[in-house]
Design goal:
This protein has 461 residues and is of the alpha/beta class. 24% of the residues lie in helices and 24% in strands. The strands form four sheets. The protein has a 14-stranded parallel sheet with strand order 1-4-5-7-9-10-12-14-16-20-21-22-23-24. It has a six-stranded mixed sheet with strand order 11-13-15-17-18-19. It is globular, with a radius of gyration of 27 Å. InterPro entries: F-box-like_dom_sf, F-box_AtFBL13-like, F-box_dom, F-box_dom-containing, LRR_dom_sf, LRR_FXL15/At3g58940/PEG3-like. It comes from Rhynchospora breviuscula. This is F-box domain-containing protein. It holds the Pfam family LRR_At5g56370.
């Protein structure tokens, strides 16, 4: 059958405009605010659609030069965000996401409050406030009405501060799921109050160099904790039954003397662990660093808690040529499946027994360990002895990836394969991979945010 001829009117029909407004709102919400606003010139109907569509506003994506949109005389400049949010003539729909990064001077701080508070009243779900850090300038203080925002699910703050006087729980961020705090001024009492209020919090990133006293974290909902604080004498994590990932950054491992995880039965991912912890307690297992002589060693109690058996992914830092702590560390995680190693630069300053692995018959984790990645492999004696032990004893090993700091040549690869005794591997499925150690490598993707400390970058700037 031949199809009927379509009329010119049908060919020219605007099928997109015929879609329900709810679908058009969804489409416009995926566009940059500037592009979404431009659709209002299409017709009177589209002007109505733009005004009610959910918006994602990012002042960093707005050109600093003034561009005039003739249809509504909206100057698309740094003032555009405040015009859209505060002037209902331009837009009346919800503000789903707001990112502000151009308020690094205190004179601009008072103008921020009405923008943030108005967005919070319009269904704000994601808020990012990122200000440059200036030691001699006051930081932006969050308005109290923002803390009561029930729609907020994601909050990222950099260079801001909380008020000393906060609303009592549970009125503070009652539905917040992810909180990122970078270089934020936060007093001890405020931190405890904040965490006790956020009953839905699942992810907490804490990266700051503000001096705090003993920090105790309790949260029934928390699943991921990223901690990179440099000026806390003691971190205690208790009553976190759903915590699955604990990530400790360079600042935490180098400057936080004591870390205690008292109750995290579902912990699956842990790192970075190194010899320079003053004390690390996981359940009833204590890793105590001692200097004998000038070489940190770890002594772990033989107790095996469910928390240690639950750990499947472990990241460690080798900070010495011969790190005697590694065998004791591995012996405490019997169900380990993934081992990531960040190797610091080699040094001749320390010396230790190079035969520590010969004394180990086997480790229980070798029945489960499947993948090993070492970043900074240079082929020295400590690297080779550790990896050779894993090759010869790792019954379940499938892949070892070596991110080499030395130049990779066929001769280098062949020599290292012989030194690692690859022909004596316990697993016939083992694959040994040599790659150049560059910033583009994502083999330690789970720990990428700690490869280059954002905190150090902020301090240097």
């Amino acid at each position: 059958m031949s199809s009927p001829k379509r009329s010119k009117a049908t060919e020219a029909a605007d099928f997109i405009s015929a879609l329900p407004d709810e679908i058009l709102h969804s489409i416009l919400s995926l566009l940059p605010a500037k592009d979404a606003a431009c659709t209002s010139v299409l017709s009177s109907h589209w002007r109505h659609v733009w005004k009610e569509a959910p918006l994602n506003l990012d002042d960093a994506s707005i050109e600093p030069d003034q561009v005039t949109l003739v249809f509504n005389k909206l100057e698309w400049s740094r003032k555009a965000v405040s015009k859209i949010i505060l002037d209902s003539h331009h837009h009346q729909g919800p503000i789903e996401a707001l990112r502000l990064s151009r308020f690094n001077r205190p004179p601009l701080h008072p103008a921020m409050d009405p923008i943030v508070q108005s967005a919070a009243k319009r269904g704000l779900r994601e808020l990012t406030l990122s200000s440059e850090i200036h030691p001699c300038q006051n930081r932006y203080r969050l308005p109290l009405p923002l803390l009561r925002c029930k729609s907020l699910h994601y909050l990222s703050l950099c260079g801001c501060q909380f008020s000393r006087v906060m609303p009592m729980p549970p009125s503070v961020f009652p539905n917040l799921k992810e909180l990122r705090l970078t270089a934020v001024t936060l007093h001890n009492d405020s931190l405890q109050l904040l965490l006790s209020s956020c009953r839905s919090l699942q992810t907490l990133h804490f990266c700051t160099f503000e001096a705090l006293h003993l920090i105790s974290i309790s949260s029934p909902s928390l699943r991921k904790l990223v901690w990179n604080h440099s000026m806390a004498p003691e971190l205690i994590i208790k009553d976190v039954p759903n915590l699955e990932s604990l990530m400790l950054g360079e600042c935490a491992t180098s400057f936080c003397p004591v870390v205690k995880v008292l109750d995290a039965p579902n912990l699956q991912q842990l790192g970075f662990i190194c010899a320079y912890f003053g004390a690390l307690q996981l359940g009833r297992t204590v890793f105590d660093s001692q200097i004998e002589p000038s070489i940190p060693k770890i002594e772990a109690s033989p107790c095996r808690m469910k928390m240690l058996s639950s750990v499947k992914t472990l990241a460690i830092k080798m900070e010495l040529d011969f790190d005697d702590t590694i065998p004791d560390l591995l012996s405490c995680f019997p169900c380990l499946e993934t081992l990531d190693i960040l190797k610091e630069e080699s040094s001749d300053e320390y010396d230790s027994d190079s035969d520590i692995w010969d004394e180990k018959d086997s480790l229980s984790c070798l029945d489960h360990l499947k993948t090993v990645t070492m970043k900074g492999f240079c082929g020295d004696q400590s690297d080779v002895e550790l990896l050779r032990f894993l090759v010869v004893c790792g019954k379940a090993l499938r892949r070892i990836t070596l991110l080499c700091s030395e130049s990779i040549t066929e001769k280098f690869v062949e020599i290292k394969r012989q030194e690692l005794c690859i022909e004596k591997r316990a697993s016939s499925d083992l694959e040994l991979i040599f790659l150049s150690d560059t910033e583009s490598n994502n083999h330690l993707w789970a720990w990428n945010e700690f490869h280059h400390s954002s905190l150090h970058s902020m301090m240097e700037s």
